């Protein structure tokens, strides 16, 4: 077969073990050697910390005194903590409204751009740009200025006779502002949708047209099912992503989650508990709840996906 | 383009007049109208989407009195560089140039670390057959979905006990240990697309894994290495939470933290300088975007990258 000469020579000098297993041994050694950076990182930066954060979540650790085991106290306290419950509500609102809106915008624009036209590259790039800068501190500052009292958004709306005042200071409007910020970054899922749309054979649409199908039927019967694996991927990634919003919330609310807790996102509250109050056990419990919730959501997505996600190999 | 085959009638709408639907048979006028509508709609949307960025750039050149005041036009008669002059002075006695240098050190470190560690690990996953590979691969994929907040507290405690808080070590070590599973995955996918005959041939010629990886795989992986470099640079440049946790001397701050400091201390008193500094902080990202937009957008669509 494809034994390397170096290996054969070595095998010849020590002929006892059969060549095959020699090769396998060498591969195992090489495999783990090449995997070493990832393996070290995985153990030291992921598995180890996960185990310790699980342990800490059952303690009252505050970074200065030795952790004391308090059982499920942190978890029980969480559900009586009004700010925690508020942060759950805020985050849920953001995920439930922001993600579908963002994906709808992404899909709509992707479909608009999916025909061969001049300037396609320009449009794709222009729509993608916000995804690259949207989570930065700079954009959070700009957003705050734009939605502030007498900012351009406020002025634009008053031109139409709508007077809301600034959005930043109004607890009823901050969520709308945050959702607009995430929808604005629709470019990343859009580009993935575009790649998916390109995979759909055009003769399907031509055949449907021949049968007299209108655009709605074409969308429901061809685009949606053919695109469902990509929709699923985007939905899963964007949802998980949305749970982890931090920098924009921190900057827009001056690190406090205000006004009236309306931008107290889960991760922001976790940060405040862990790194401002040094209640690291409590924050660890929060982190684990987040892992569990994200895990459950991922599981639900995968379970329900069987009924609506069609892979090309599927029987109809 | 298709005028030759165009019948005199515009696109047949009823099957009775034309039994076979031919999408190419639309007249040029209809095509022109459609294309004009498309461009008008698309350009209007582009204008909407890019408005915040344009507003930011325009505001950075305006005097304070015109930002957020009655005049929100993108064009001002009083354009000046004053805001940038103020912004470059920095904050708390540290010049903005220092913040830039810090950001640059962190971003370049992130690129070097990520490219090295992710490509080496990806080679093991994609090209070497060894027991446990499947299991580890599954675990790596699982970390893609894991909210990283679950690890930040213990990580912080460890780095704090090692006396590494307020150094760049906690911010960079993960990059050298392929902690961004995303890039490992991207490279594995890319390597799997390369023909297996390459390795086989090299093996016959006596090359070991190190040679195969270094002289065959790496050169062929250029597109994946480029997208990884671009994205790890930009993500590191924009990162806020990491530096917020680990750095506490302003001399070591990268731009996003400096910006926050600026916001905290100036509040709305010097809006212009604040926005000018935001522009400065985004400048490398914008430049990168303009230069590499092709790679960036294509990298996303082929590898499912997140922005």
Automatic annotation (TrEMBL), chain B:
Protein name: Carbohydrate ABC transporter permease
SUPFAM superfamilies attached to this UniProt entry: MetI-like
Keyword tRNA processing: no
Domain ABC transmembrane type-1: 100-292
PANTHER family (UniProt xref): ABC TRANSPORTER PERMEASE PROTEIN MG189-RELATED-RELATED, ABC TRANSPORTER PERMEASE PROTEIN YESQ-RELATED
Biological source species: Paenarthrobacter sp. AMU7
Example of a GO biological process term: transmembrane transport
Stretches the record annotates as Disordered: 1-25
InterPro entries per UniProt: MetI-like (IPR000515), MetI-like_sf (IPR035906)
């Amino acid at each position: 077969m494809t034994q390397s000469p170096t290996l054969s020579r070595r095998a010849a000098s020590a002929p006892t073990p059969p060549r095959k297993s020699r090769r396998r041994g060498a591969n195992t050694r090489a495999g783990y050697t090449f995997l070493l950076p990832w393996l070290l990182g995985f153990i030291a930066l992921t598995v180890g910390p996960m185990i310790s954060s699980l342990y800490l979540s059952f303690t009252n650790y505050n970074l200065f005194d030795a952790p004391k085991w308090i059982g499920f106290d942190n978890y029980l306290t969480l559900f009586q903590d009004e700010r925690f419950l508020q942060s759950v509500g805020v985050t849920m609102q953001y995920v439930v409204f922001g993600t579908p809106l963002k994906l709808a915008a992404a899909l709509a624009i992707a479909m608009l751009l999916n025909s061969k036209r001049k300037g396609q590259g320009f449009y794709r790039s222009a729509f993608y740009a916000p995804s690259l800068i949207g989570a930065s501190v700079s954009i959070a500052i700009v957003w705050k200025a734009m939605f502030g009292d007498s900012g351009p958004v406020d002025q634009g709306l008053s031109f139409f006779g709508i007077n809301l005042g600034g959005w930043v200071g109004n607890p009823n409007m901050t969520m709308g502002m945050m959702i607009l910020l995430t929808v604005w970054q629709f470019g990343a899922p859009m580009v993935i949708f575009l790649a998916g749309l390109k995979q759909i054979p055009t003769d399907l649409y031509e055949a449907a047209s021949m049968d007299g199908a209108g655009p709605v039927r074409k969308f429901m019967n061809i685009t949606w099912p053919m695109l469902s694996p990509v929709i699923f991927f985007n939905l899963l990634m964007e949802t998980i992503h949305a749970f982890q919003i931090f920098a924009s919330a921190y900057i827009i609310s001056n690190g406090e989650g205000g006004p009236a807790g309306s931008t107290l996102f889960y991760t922001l509250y976790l940060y405040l508990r862990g790194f401002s109050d040094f209640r690291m056990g409590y924050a660890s419990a929060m982190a684990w709840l987040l892992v569990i919730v994200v895990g459950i959501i991922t599981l639900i997505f995968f379970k329900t996906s069987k009924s609506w996600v069609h892979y090309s190999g599927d029987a109809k | 383009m298709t005028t030759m085959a165009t019948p005199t009638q515009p696109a047949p709408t009823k099957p009775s007049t034309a039994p076979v639907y031919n999408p190419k048979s639309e007249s040029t006028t209809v095509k022109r109208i459609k294309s004009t509508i498309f461009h008008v709609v698309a350009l209007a949307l582009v204008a909407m989407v890019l408005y915040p960025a344009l507003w930011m750039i325009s505001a950075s050149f305006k005097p304070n009195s015109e930002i957020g005041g009655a005049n929100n036009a993108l064009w001002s008669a009083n354009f000046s560089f004053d805001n940038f002059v103020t912004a470059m002075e920095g904050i708390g006695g540290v010049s903005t140039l220092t913040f830039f240098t810090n950001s640059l050190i962190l971003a370049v470190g992130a690129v070097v670390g990520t490219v090295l560690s992710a490509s080496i690990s990806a080679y093991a996953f994609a090209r070497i057959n060894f027991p446990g590979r499947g299991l580890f691969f599954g675990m790596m994929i699982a970390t893609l979905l894991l909210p990283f907040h679950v690890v930040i507290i213990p990580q912080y405690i460890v780095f704090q006990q090692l006396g590494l808080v307020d150094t760049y070590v906690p911010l960079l070590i993960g990059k050298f240990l392929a902690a961004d599973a995303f890039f490992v995955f991207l490279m594995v996918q890319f390597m799997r697309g390369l023909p297996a005959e390459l390795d086989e041939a090299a093996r016959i010629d006596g090359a070991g894994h190190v040679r195969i990886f270094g002289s065959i795989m790496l050169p062929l992986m250029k597109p994946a290495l480029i997208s990884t470099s671009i994205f790890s640079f930009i993500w590191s440049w924009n990162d806020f939470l990491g530096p917020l946790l680990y750095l506490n001397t302003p001399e070591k701050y990268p731009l996003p933290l400096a910006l926050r400091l600026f916001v905290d201390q100036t509040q709305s008193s010097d809006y212009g300088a604040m926005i000018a500094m935001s522009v400065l902080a985004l400048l490398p990202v914008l430049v990168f975007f303009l230069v590499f937009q092709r790679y960036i957008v294509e990298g996303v669509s082929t590898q499912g990258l997140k922005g």
